[in-house]
């Protein structure tokens, strides 16, 4: 009997503070009209000063565990995707493990693939389950991306937000994740990055200059083409037609990128989960947050076929196709 990894619970958390486009008009030379037309974003959530990525993760994780009917002692793997960990170490996954009271001594680690992080984390956890190394995994995508934004740079600060999403992934004989597809090409690092870190440009990090930089227009064009290719790759790997996909849950970077992928799949926008207007780009959190919204409002139902895809810094890109 084939062993699948199946999503049995989803959870999401958004910090209370909302920053609207009109709020941003008072901070940088921008307009609600520009942001709405170019990105589809109307507002984003921003973590309170005291809130960390682990705090956001905990809320999302508890909601996913509740939906799946799982307690801390049931979890035997934690994979957490983030670009904005609480600390240098321990990993945010280890901090979350302690916070949740997961006392099994199970593996817990972070994955760093920026906006593709959740797809990477899901793919890793799925391999643990398929190979019988895990029966019940907690997979989280969480960011306090606001901390690495230059709030004077209108070309980036209007795009991103904070949040966390989580899923419980369990071993099952019923169909779940059908395939995952991961890619990276580090030659493009200069188009989207934080140019400083601990072992490269530490003095800039200390000076508070380690902030996101992006050549948005170039990233946009490559993202659209690359996501088109990964959609083809995913369908071909499973012998599926476009019409077999019930739902697209894309990374939420820009409504124009999402529209292009939906067109490529000949999908009506009614079959596409869009949260970019409400959440902005929450990087690794965007897909699990969008999934949670559409599961909880009853759109995505058991047995339906869901395609997830993401593109981000690295460049990294990836997809997952699953029976929900
Ligand atoms: O999630 C990770 C992957 N990231 C992405 O996928 C993001 C991909 N890129 C994008 O979503 C879009 O490229 C942006 C939304 C970032 C920018 O949209 P665009 O249509 O590519 O605009 P642009 O960068 O070509 O800029 C057009 C103009 C420029 O002015 P000039 O040079 O034409 O006079 C910018 O200076 O818009 C200006 N601009 C702004 N104006 C008002 C840039 N940011 C703003 C702003 N408000 N916030």
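^ structure tokens above, recovered residues below v
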């Amino acid at each position: 009997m084939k062993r699948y990894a199946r999503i049995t619970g989803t959870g999401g958390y958004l910090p209370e503070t909302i920053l609207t486009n009109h709020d941003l008009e008072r901070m940088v030379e921008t307009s609600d009209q520009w942001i709405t037309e170019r990105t589809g974003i109307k507002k984003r959530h921003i973590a309170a000063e005291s809130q960390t990525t682990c705090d956001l993760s905990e809320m999302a994780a508890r909601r996913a565990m509740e939906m799946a009917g799982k307690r801390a002692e049931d979890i035997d793997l934690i994979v957490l995707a983030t670009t904005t960990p609480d600390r240098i170490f321990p990993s945010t996954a280890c901090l979350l493990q302690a916070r949740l009271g997961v006392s099994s001594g199970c593996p817990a680690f972070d994955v760093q693939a920026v906006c593709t992080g959740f797809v990477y984390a899901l793919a890793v956890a799925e391999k643990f389950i398929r190979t019988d190394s895990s029966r019940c995994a907690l997979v989280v995508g969480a960011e306090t991306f606001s901390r690495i934004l230059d709030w004077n740079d209108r070309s980036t600060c209007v795009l991103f937000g904070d949040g966390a999403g989580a899923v419980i992934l369990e071993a099952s004989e019923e169909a779940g994740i059908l395939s995952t597809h991961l890619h990276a090409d580090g030659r493009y690092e200069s188009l989207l990055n934080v140019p400083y870190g601990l072992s490269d440009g530490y003095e800039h990090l200390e000076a508070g200059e380690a902030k996101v930089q992006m050549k948005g227009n170039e990233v946009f064009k490559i993202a659209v083409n690359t996501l088109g290719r990964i959609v083809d790759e995913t369908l071909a790997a499973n012998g599926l037609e476009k019409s077999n996909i019930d739902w697209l849950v894309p990374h939420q970077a820009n409504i124009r990128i999402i529209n292009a992928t939906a067109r490529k799949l000949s999908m009506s926008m009614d079959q596409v989960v869009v949260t970019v207007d409400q959440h902005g780009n929450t990087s690794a959190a965007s897909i699990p947050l969008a999934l949670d919204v559409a599961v909880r409002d009853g759109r995505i139902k058991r047995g339906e076929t869901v395609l997830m895809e993401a593109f981000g810094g690295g460049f990294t890109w990836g997809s997952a196709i699953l029976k929900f």
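The longest helix spans residues 216-237.
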